[in-house]
Sequence to fold (191 residues):
Amino acid sequence: MRTAQVNRTTKETDIRLKLSLDGGEVSVSTGIGFFDHMLTAFAFYGGLGLELTVKGDLEVDGHHTVEDTGIVLGQALSRALGDRKGIRRYGSAFVPMDEALCFTALDFSNRPFLVFDAEMPQPMIGSYDSCLTVEFMRALAMNSGLTLHQKCHYGANAHHITEALFKSLGMAVKEAVQVTGGGVTSTKGVL
Ligand SMILES: [Mn+2]
Fold:
């Protein structure tokens, strides 16, 4: 089974995460309702098992909670993938949500990079700052060795835009981590 467990404690956050690339229980509790909604959608559309508990310094704001969750989820993805042998490696997905249309393309290249192009029309979604999505995606990409591109083509509602970004991320990850062969998917022979 391709699984990983990562625990991380700092003065700002205490995070316990269990990840399975091949499905399983999904239970997410971060203290930010909308962020739970996004991570649950990501795991569901990613075909992932994800058990996550985060206790963050929400009395400051959501920044550390969201960014550190991205770090830990990225580390878990990288560990669960191991030597990345046999995976499809690339994945992409368009996801519409009502008036919004978002796209994700990614590559588990071991060369972390983020291109994020999505304007958020509203600054807050419940108690979640709209500007935290790019922070989460950057932390995820840097810590999982992921080349990650996300674009919102159009949209008027930050909830819809953000949800379409997380769902398309999940669908693209599901495609990319599929085992399709025995060797490393690279002309260099290593990822
Ligand atoms: Mn929703």
Notes: The chain is about 35% helix and 30% strand.
